[in-house]
Write a structure and sequence with these properties.
Elements: E1 10-16, H1 21-31, E2 38-44, H2 52-58, E3 64-68, H3 74-82, E4 89-91, H4 103-113, E5 118-124, E6 140-142, E7 156-159, H5 160-165, H6 185-195, E8 200-209, H7 220-239, H8 244-263, H9 267-294
Parallel strand pairs: 1-2, 1-4, 2-3, 5-8
Antiparallel strand pairs: 4-7, 5-7, 6-8
Helix pairs in contact: 7-9, 8-9
Organism: Rhizobium miluonense
Protein name: Glycosyltransferase involved in cell wall bisynthesis
Domain Glycosyltransferase 2-like: 11-106
Length: 295
């Protein structure tokens, strides 16, 4: 299935590794969209052909292009996929998220009534409850303050020309990057866009779905993951010249968690809070070394 370039509003870039049925669920949700003025670019980071049969089935229903990634890292894969995009706008789904049937049509209406350079939505469960963090409850401009409560990677839509001007996502951040900075790549690119003079708008009714992490928060894997994300937060804040005064509350909260969980007899969660604190502080202090390394 193919569309003419003039018909493509949105290029949907899916960076994927290790998924199969999750990709099928995502593609099923895209096939169910009320409008179909989009293309799909799958950036395959697998070493095998597990996606081949899946994409072959859906290629009759959706305009899918498959590209192989030579290196790992979700942000590098997103950037690669964007180079093949034809649409005016870019969307970057996680390979295990999915969307309600009115996501694309709602975005199409939104850009007409509220012009902006990028838009962000809210992650919700099937009942409409916010998941994966704290998000603003009302529409708002995205700025240096709200960037921390309005963004999720797979519910941000960016004008392609703006994305290209800021050189896309930072390849050193995010899952698979091979660095300590395991997350907050979406805040990083939003801050780059704002610095370049572009505007962002958050709409809580523009929603998508994602599996919730219901695993034991004190398990070694969960603690390691939250530490990597915490290092990313500290790094991004320092990289974009936030003041220590702004950053300090993000250190105080996990320290309070250490105290509360220790006193309440929950050593696993106390350790988790310590790792959040030390990760954020480590990320904050990693920026000068990284900048020196880059010179």
């Amino acid at each position: 299935m193919a569309l003419r370039n003039s018909e493509i509003l949105l290029s949907i870039v899916i960076a994927t590794l290790g998924r199969t049925h999750e990709i099928e669920r995502l593609l099923k949700s895209l096939a169910a969209q009320k409008v179909n003025n989009f293309e799909i670019i799958v950036v395959d980071q697998n070493n095998d052909d597990r996606l081949g049969p899946i994409l072959e089935v859906w290629s009759d229903k959706l305009p899918i292009t498959r590209k192989r990634a030579e290196s790992r890292g979700v942000c590098r894969a997103r950037n690669l996929g964007a180079t093949f995009a034809s649409g005016e706008w870019l969307l970057f789904p996680d390979d295990d998220c999915w969307y309600p049937e009115d996501f694309v049509s709602q975005f199409d209406t939104l850009r007409a009534v509220h012009p902006s350079d990028f838009y962000s939505g809210r992650p919700v469960d099937l009942e409409g409850n916010t998941i994966m963090g704290t998000f603003e409850k009302a529409p708002t401009l995205v700025d240096r303050k709200t960037v921390w409560t309005t963004l999720i990677e797979w519910a941000i839509v960016i004008r392609r020309s703006s994305f290209e001007e800021v050189e896309g996502f930072a390849g050193e951040i995010g899952p698979g990057a091979g660095t300590r900075w395991g997350g907050y790549e979406v805040q990083d690119i939003a801050l780059k866009l704002l610095k370049a003079g572009y505007q962002g708008y958050y709409v809580p009714t523009l929603v998508g779905h994602h599996p919730e992490d219901l695993s034991d928060r004190a398990s070694p894997g969960s603690v390691a993951k939250i530490r990597a994300y915490s290092v990313g937060m500290g790094y991004v804040m320092r990289k974009h010249d936030y003041s220590l005064q702004f950053f300090l509350p993000h250190l105080v909260r996990p320290l309070m968690g250490v105290v509360v969980y220790t006193l309440s007899g929950k050593p696993g969660l106390a350790k988790r809070s310590r790792e959040i604190f030390s990760g954020r502080w480590s990320g904050w202090n990693s920026v000068p070394a990284f900048k020196t390394h880059q010179k």
